[in-house]
Fold Auxin efflux carrier.
Amino acid sequence: MASELLTAFLAALQASGSVLLTILYGLIAGQYGFLDNHAAKRISQLGVSMLLPALLITNLGSQLQLDTAAQYVPVFIWSLAYNVTSMIIGIVATRMFGFPKWVTPAVAFNNTTSLPLLLVQALGSTGALKQVLKSSDDTVSAALDRAQSYLLVSSIVGNSLTFGLGGDLLSAHDEDPRDEFEKKLRDGSEEEDPEGQREEDQPDEETSLLPQPVVTYQSRVSRSAHSVASHVWEGYLPRPVQTVVARVVRFVSPPVVGAVIGIVLGIAPPLHRVFFNEPQEGGIFKAWLTSSLKNLGELFVALQVVVVGAKLAHGLRGMKRGEVSGQLPPYAVMFVLFVRFVFWPVVSIAVIVLTASKTNLLDNDPVLWFTMMLMPTGPPAMKLTALAEATHADEEEKLAITKFLSISYALSPIITPTIMMSLKACREWI
């Protein structure tokens, strides 16, 4: 028993150390100018807009089938439940104790994408995932694929709520969502025609590589679409419907689109066959199209964690140069860290153990139980810095957020006991 606990502890510690070292590499890249803040932001945008959707398409599409789709429903419900519960906890605590407004999203949104995905990869390399294999025929590679697909479903819920509600929690969306969406439609319909620009303008990094006729046609189609949408919006939709549509649109993001495509490719048998079966079994797209998307998606995990380190380096440099101190309320920091690293690990392990052992709601897959235990845990999402920018927070608050994120990611290895107890729970308590 002691030997098994020690093995699990060492495997979890090594996996956490691997994640922390990857963040450190990004910190070094940022410190020595290999990856400045502008480049880090662009890479992060690339990851969210292209790499993560590609990962979702290939991973969800390959794992999801009509006979396995039902086992993802509990993951979706659990992800929604703990995110909403976290938001309620953050809102109540902020109002009750007078915490800074950034405490609410820090409690509500943990890192649900890059950090846990890299963590399970590290656990696979240490051999820890062998403890949660479904059967003797199961493999670490197959278990890792399933774990990633479960975590990606959770990340879709977390990212959608962050995009949709994060600004409201930080009071970033001051105007009515209906007016905000109407302004976007109006701006799109009034976009300047590239053909009207002066021919003598010199090309720069913003110049499209497409031929000018294609650029002009693309711009005109975009303006026409925005104009039609604006006409329908203003002339045919009642104000209550406009408000609902505007709020729903906030939740639409590239990862959500990628997830929808992956789900459709997975549960539609003809599409699943041509995209994910072996070529000799009818998978005419697997060797080239699916493979290229998989290569693109695999860049996401480590790259995003490196970007986390680079962003922390930029924030720490700004804090060192700044005249303001960025003071952190100690009780606010302790509260967020308690919720993220103590409260949710205890609650999630207890809930999943009871659900898996006392009901038939969860599939008989220890990897599913293990990943669901890990989903609510870990440090806050790095998107907290972007949300702070959106609120036009003063420098004191921005530096406080940078300090807090630095502390929380430096303490990320304390998730080791959670990993160890989750492995033990899946192996012995269910």
Observations:
- The first helix runs from residue 2 to 31.
- Residues 82 and 405 are 21 Å apart (CA to CA).
- The mean pLDDT is 84.
